[in-house]
Amino acid sequence: MHRPTDLDLVRDHTVYACVMGSRAFGLATDGSDTDRRGVFLAPTPLFWHFEKPPTHVDGPADEQFSWELERFCELALRANPNILECLHSPLVEQLTDTGRELLALRDAFLSRQVHTTFGRYALGQHKKLEADVRLHGAPRWKHAMHLLRLLTSCRDLLRTGSLTIDVGDQREPLLAVRRGEVSWQDVESWMTRLAAEADEAATRTPLPAGPDRRRIEDFLFRVRRESAGAA
To answer: Using one digit for the tens of pLDDT, what is the confidence trace for 111-138?
Structure first.
């Protein structure tokens, strides 16, 4: 078969595309970028060559990034925070039948692993903020805001079993952090409280111990087989 370019795969084979970042989180301001994320399904015959399809593609638009379906599922099974949140964006721009099936499976990716993965990611971001404070006397406030948002999301996910990424009534308190109107000491106290609340929620969370790998693998196998039959 004709081998499409990487950008052709995004243009012609995207099954799900959404807006992420501040616009999806309910934290957009006049200067906010529009971060687009997507999932494409590479035609199965492309995997029969020595040179395999890409696992991800930048572009074609600015601030656009896409994953091949299998890679996306692998990362979601590992409870990658960015990937799980992508599945729950309220701003969907493109959706095929395969994309709808993927979204219908999003709860199958959720498990108690999020306590570890979200927490590990938050710890790494916190260390970067601390380094900014040591070097410059203040953190990057935008990053501090997003870390607070992530910790809140993790806590609420562990409490309820559902992932909601729009910050709702926390928009103004979080934007105050972004504007530097809250002291770093108070921000750190807020982070510490959220982390402790997430730890407590993890002891009684309704989330299962692990993701439903069988359902996800069955889905991936079926769409690969259908793609092969269509070639």
So the answer is: 999 999 999 999 999 999 999 999 999 9
DSSP-based three-state secondary structure for 190? helix
Whether the Cβ atoms of residue 102 and residue 15 lie closer than 8 Å to each other: yes
Please state whether the peptide bond connecting residue 60 to the residue before it is cis, i.e. omega within 30 degrees of 0: yes
Give the pTM: 0.92
Residues 149 and 174: beta-carbon distance below 8 Å: yes
Rounded to whole angstroms, how far apart are CA atoms 127 and 136?
14
The two three-digit tokens of residue 219, written as one number: 């889905």
- Across the range 39-55, mean pLDDT stands at 93
Q: Which two tokens stand for residue 137?
A: 């006397």
CATH of domain 6-109+211-230: 3.30.460
How far from each other are the two terminal CA atoms of the chain, in whole angstroms? 8
Q: Where are the domains of the chain?
A: 6-109+211-230, 113-202
Letter string b/e over residues 91-123, b meaning 16 or more CB atoms within 10 A of that residue's CB = eeeeeeebbeebbebebbbbbbbbbebbbebbe
pLDDT at 231: 56
Q: Measuring CA to CA, which residue among 3, 7, 5 is closest to residue 60?
A: 7
